[in-house]
Design goal:
Layout: H1 3-16, E1 26-29, H2 41-53, E2 60-65, H3 83-93, E3 94-95, E4 99-107, E5 110-118, E6 127-129, E7 135-136, E8 138-141, E9 144-147, H4 150-185, H5 192-200, H6 208-224, H7 231-244, H8 260-282, H9 287-306, H10 310-329, H11 333-347, H12 359-365
Parallel strand pairs: 1-2
Antiparallel strand pairs: 2-5, 3-6, 4-5, 6-7, 8-9
Helix pairs in contact: 4-5, 4-6, 5-7, 6-7, 6-8, 7-8, 7-9, 8-9, 8-10, 9-10, 9-11, 10-11
């Protein structure tokens, strides 16, 4: 999320008094540290960064300077130190060193600063150095900052150990998928089915990076297959692709924002569906394979509608449009009707009327 968007959302919440603003990964301050005349402002700055970096609730945390809990909720802030100076203070006072980024945004004529703190999955607990050089662990408790207790430290270390294990599992899974990909390149079509069985193990319940490797491998599978002769294999490719795209439930929306990495996966799935649909019309002339491609595109479209991904939805509809033009140019009217039916069916989740289902089209393309 961009800094300006973060500030505008917080300002809206402050003005509507709809919810608590500050939490373990977010703090608002009316003034910048060095402007408070405190002699130990560098330590206060390092302490807050340390506490945010130890937060277990988010990979990226934010300190907002220029927002307050009192009307008019905005206050002009000036920061004389540039990002390089701030990074030097962090390097001298926080161990290990988290990444920081300072952004200035103008909201209603006020200068507001957003300091973003991004921590590494590999780092354990973060320590802040006090003026006497003692190193202590600080954490966020709700909207306040304090010294970490032993039980809280145990919790931090347990989460970090789990994250480290997750990284190891992800690395091994990526290696396994790349090994499958290599095996694919030296295999004949007769050996594709067991390769898809192996690949299917990594199509769901793994990270987006693993799923991306799966989709990359599936694209090479598609290049190898002759559609009319390998109908069942293409259907399996579409099924594995749907799982690898992490489309999850196609009945209700996710309870969180769809990440950029997830959107990249969906884009890979969209390209794969487009390629299968193009070949099914232009080269292999296979109705069943065209139906399989449209099924994948329908699932992606439905996911974008459920999760209000307007930009991605436009991309999906553009693919439907291109395939429709191709179908009409090849005098393939039924394919055009099937595309429109699947668009209308996906849109019906928003309360629109369900389209009439033609049995002859269903038999032909499913």
């Amino acid at each position: 999320m961009e800094s300006k968007e973060i500030v505008n959302k917080l300002l809206h919440k402050l003005r509507s008094r709809s919810s608590v603003i500050e939490n373990k990964s977010l703090d608002i301050k009316g003034e910048w540290y060095s402007n408070t005349k405190k002699k130990n402002w560098k330590f206060e700055f390092a302490k807050d960064v340390c506490a945010m970096a130890n937060s277990l609730s988010s990979r990226e945390c934010h300190l907002i300077f220029g927002l307050t809990n009192r009307e008019p909720f905005l206050r002009n802030v000036e920061i004389l130190e540039d990002e390089a100076v701030l990074q030097q203070i962090i390097q001298s006072n926080v161990t290990p060193i988290p990444k920081i980024k300072l952004d200035k945004v103008i909201i209603e004529g006020y200068s507001i600063y957003v300091l973003s703190i991004r921590k590494s999955k590999k780092d354990m607990a973060y320590f802040a150095s006090r003026p006497n050089r003692d190193q202590l662990i600080y954490i966020r408790r709700g909207s306040s900052t304090g010294l970490c207790t032993k039980s809280e430290l145990d919790q931090i270390l347990e989460v970090k150990r789990e994250e480290e294990l997750s990284i190891q599992i992800e690395s091994q899974a990526i290696k396994s998928v790349k090994d499958i990909h290599h095996k694919l390149k030296i295999s004949s079509i007769e050996n594709i089915s067991p390769i898809l069985n192996d690949l299917d193990q990594y199509s769901f319940d793994y990270s987006f990076r693993v799923s991306s490797e799966v989709l990359y491998t599936l694209r090479d599978v598609v290049h190898m297959l002759r559609f009319e002769e390998n109908k069942e294999l293409i259907k399996r490719v579409v099924d594995i692709s749907s799982k690898a795209c992490h489309l999850n439930s196609l009945v209700r929306s996710l309870n969180h924002k769809v990440s950029d990495r997830h959107l990249e996966l969906i884009s890979q799935g969209l390209d794969l569906g487009h390629e299968i649909g193009y070949r099914a019309i232009r080269r292999d002339v296979s109705e069943k394979m065209f139906g399989a491609a449209v099924l994948l595109l329908h699932r992606i479209l439905r996911f974008t509608i459920l999760n209000k991904l307007s930009s991605t939805k436009k991309e999906v509809l553009h693919v439907f449009l291109r395939l429709n033009e191709l179908a009409l140019n090849n005098n393939y009217a039924d394919a055009s009707k099937w595309l429109q039916f699947n668009i209308d069916d996906a849109e019906a989740i928003n309360g629109r009327e369900l389209p009439a289902l033609h049995a002859d089209l269903l038999d032909k393309f499913s």
